[in-house]
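Sequence in, structure out. Go.
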Amino acid sequence: MAFDFVVEHLFSLSPIVKPMFGCHSIYVGTKIVLVTRLKENHPEANGIWIATSREHHTSLKEIIPTMHSVYVLSNGKNETDWQMIHADDDNFETYTSIICDLILRSDVRIGKVPKPRKGKK
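Output:
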């Protein structure tokens, strides 16, 4: 798993790590909070993806000014709910730790309960 220090940081919340499209999703309770990605294809999408929503982007960008949309999710065309800290960001570990601290404090801006999967027919 890329950036395993994230799970260590969130250890007290008993995070659950699940594989997802060649990445790893991190859940706290029923909420997905982060995705870690470090792959050769689409290197612009490598880093930590933050599960949030547009209504929280402005306030989170006040804390993490280099945070931006995961444009690979919209084919580079639109702002997405998901935000990211790029792996090459000079402050990657610092900003990722700040996000983890927000998760530890149950900050409502981070985390989404995934929609239930439809059962097989």
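Check: The CA atoms of residues 52 and 110 lie 5 Å apart. The two ends are 33 Å apart (CA to CA).
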